[in-house]
Structures are given as structure tokens and as C-alpha cells.
Amino acid sequence: MKTKAIGLFLIASGLMIYSNIVLANDGSSVHFDLTFASDDNLNLSPDKNLAVDDTSTTANISIGSSEKLNDTSMLNLNLNASLSRFQDTKGLDNNAFKLSAAYLYKPGGKFNSPIYTFSTDIVLSDSKTDIRDQSILTAGAAISGRITTTLSARTGVTTTSAESDSRVFDTKSSRFFINADLSLSPSITSYLTYSFISGDSVSTLSLNNPTAETLKVVNQASVIEQDPTFDQNQIAYQLDTKTSVISLGFNYLIAHKQAIDISASMISSEADNNIDYDRLIISLSYLASF
Q1: Residue 89: its pLDDT value, please?
Q2: Residue by residue, what is the 3-state secondary structure of the chain?
Q3: pTM as predicted
């Protein structure tokens, strides 16, 4: 597979370079997290009666390295591997590898001096359903800083391009986000994030007993292909959508470098011809650093 070969080459090259940097750098760290999530609309169905809900478990491990370039800038590198398994929808099971780089610039030394971040990620996602295999490139820019001793904020933009061997999963999108973190106590932090995403979205629907909603989607979709992820008689279709995401979460420090994170994300997406869908994702994570 051409896409997978390119992705493997990029990841392997990154591993070779990255391992040399990490081994030579005292600023390296290892992070592990385990997440349990509930999703009430996995297939992004505009018809709630046809929405597929399921729970998943994701294990993630990453190796990070920070290199101070000078008094005002720093380079962060991160290598990440994850696997996700679903309770019922086995076709969504996937393994992913990500190589990230971020350049941080802080022009001032004051408490509330802003930090400018420019980042890029390369992801190789290997799904149990072959048409969902993707190589994903993301680039972004953000500005962050402390507002008070307990409140910090961050805002930025990202652009994402995904390639696959299936036309329907070749997607492009842009995202704007704004985030606020509030320290409630030395061990509890709450956070709120709003994101607006514009671009391609992929949904799946059944061709069994087609409805007026099905016909409306088929007429509006730019690309349609068979998708065996949920059932044999299903299609995946691509729409140009506008999506709003509101995420609210709490992070609890339970021990040194260990935390529990609880969050809920409310997702609302709209396309032309009055096509829209809603989605709720609730997550519980265990986080650890070494």
C-alpha cells in the first residue's frame, strides 16, 4: 500500500533521528495514558435512530524531549504510539504512530509573557478496516500565557490533510480553538475548550430500508464508497461541514506525576441541505509521567 509505505518510511526515519536526540538529552520524559470513552454517534449519523454508540479503550505511550535553543526559544520533539479497541465496533480498532515537533518562543521573561508555538505532526493510522488507513499531516500555530496565578489561556489554528487509498477518507480541514485552564486547588484543574472546524467530514449510513434522509445525504455527498466498518451494506460519504466542539474537563492529581482526567465533548456539525448531526463523547483517563 503506497500510503502506508510512505507513512512507515517517515515514522522509521523519525525514530532513527529521534532516538539519537532523546538518548543524548537529559530533558527527555516518558508519558503513558489509558482512556475509556463512550461515544453516542460513532458513524456520525444525521438520524439519531441510526446512530451507532459504543465504548472504547485507548492506550498511549509517548517519549518527549526538550532542547533549549537559547534564552527565548525551545524545541520539543515527541514520538507517540497508541492502540484503540472498541467493545462492539471492531472495524474501528486501530493502531497509530505519531511524530511531533514544536518550536516555542517566549520573547519576555515576565510572569504573563506570551508563548508562541509553531508545530507539526505526522501520523500513520492503521485501522482494522483497510479503507480507513490514513497518513495525516497537521501544522499549527498557537499563543498561550498566564492571565492570573490560577488562570491560563491558549488559542490557535491548525490545518490537517489526510491521505488514504480510499477517496472518501482523503480529507482536509482547518480548526480554530480557544482554551482556558483554571486551577481550583493544588491538585484540581478545570478546563474549557471551544473549537470550530471547517472542512471534510466522513459519515457512514446504512442502505437497508433507505429513508428520505438517506437520499438527501447521497445527493449532497461529494464522495461515496462502500464501508464495511459497521455492516456490509453501508456506505461512507464525505461532506463539507462546519463543526463546533465544546469540551469541559477536570484533571485530578492523585500522586506525584499521576492524574485522573474526566471530560465531556459536545459536537455539533452542519452541512448544506439541512444535514446535521450531534455527538457526545465522555472520557475517563489515567495519566502518568516518568
Answers
A1: 92
A2: CHHHHHHHHHHHHHHHHHHHHHHCCCCCEEEEEEEEEEECCCCCCCCHHHCCCEEEEEEEEEEEEEEECCCCEEEEEEEEEEEEEECCCHHHCEEEEEEEEEEEECCCCCCCCCEEEEEEEEEEEEECCHHHCEEEEEEEEEEEEECCCCEEEEEEEEEEEEECCCHHHCEEEEEEEEEEEEEEECCEEEEEEEEEEEEEEEEEEECCCCCHHHHHHHHHCCEEEECCCCCCCEEEEEEEEEEEEEEEEEEEEEECCEEEEEEEEEEEEEECCCEEEEEEEEEEEEEEEC
A3: 0.89
At residue 110, the pLDDT reads 81
User: How many Cα atoms within 13 Å fall on the side-chain side of residue 206?
Assistant: 12
Query: What would the pLDDT profile of 55-107 be if each residue is shown by its tens digit?
Result: 999 999 999 988 889 989 999 999 999 999 999 999 999 999 999 999 999 99
Cα angle 122, 126, 129; round to 5: 140
- Please provide the CATH number assigned to the domain covering 2-289: 2.40.160.40
- Rounded Cα distance, 39 and 58, in Å: 13
Question: What confidence tens digit (pLDDT) does each residue in 181-240 have?
Answer: 999 999 999 999 999 999 999 998 887 766 776 777 777 788 889 888 887 788 899 999
Other Cβ atoms less than 10 A from the Cβ of 87: the count is 10
Do residues 220 and 246 touch, judged by C-beta distance below 8 A?
no
- Determine the Cα–Cα distance for residues 101 and 265; give it in Å rounded to an integer: 26
Domain extents in the chain: 2-289
CB atoms within 10 A of CB 254: 11
